[in-house]
Predict the 3D structure of the following.
Amino acid sequence: MYNPFSLENKTILVTGASSGIGRAIAIECSKMGASVIITGRNEERLKETHSRMKGDQPNYIVADLSLPNDVQNLVQKITSLNGLVNCAGLTKVLPFPFAERKDFEEVMEVNFFAPTELSRLLVKSKKLQKGASIVFISSVSGVYCSAVAGSIYSSSKGVINGLAKAMALDLAPKGIRVNCVNPGMIDTHIFSEGKITQEQLKEDMKRYPLKRYGKPEEVAYAVIYLLSDAAEWITGSNLLIDGGYTLL
Amino acid sequence: MELQEFITNFANQFEETDPSVFTKDTIFKDLDEWSSLMALSIIAMVDEEYGVALKGDDIRSANTIEDLYNIIKSKK
């Protein structure tokens, strides 16, 4: 069957695959024919993602990407990749006067330093093949807009925007493409700590021209596109997935 | 932790509202300056000053400043 978006014969590493967007990306990529290596911190939840993937999939690898040893170990276990999806991320909602250096460091570690170092080591060890595609899950926040008490998260996503563009340039000679997807609010448990109430989220949803939050799968479909050969001439780009949020 | 001190810390988050407005019986969500950002600032102040992690629903269920004070006390 003709399908330029197929991921058959591609091996793809997805970080943050134990929940939310990362889990959906892992599952959808497996449905598109990819061999998907998933990693995350929580073994139980990784197992759950693994059981929901299609086809005969490689075993999951438990790793905390903020620990240098875990990153080294992960890179060692991988032999060859055609795609890397940097999805592990977290948020911290604090009004700017309360956002201390330690709060920025906590989020930057996971959202910026970890994916940067993992990508670098995979490139340097030549595990990413010619024609490989690296996708970062950035956000509308920090690139197109921000949100109340969002200085930490916005910073951590804005920095990815700059990184991806410079990486795209440096890795072009290796035939490796680097792109970002920029989702608006997606239905995940990112606000489960409860500073934001369900009522506030419902109210926020109304601000989206398409009147709802996105589904994790809808981010996965964009990632699949950027991983596939259909996007072979796309590098250094941002793909906005926001239900029209940033139009207003 | 004392109620009077809590009221002062609470009032300190505001810019426009006169500090004299704030008493234990103030219905804080009726204040013109109340907003979602203010709610998050109160949550952050309580975390910083009292080491208590409030949830948005705690703010929602409190009407007066004293209500909120009692919620924090019960979580300490």
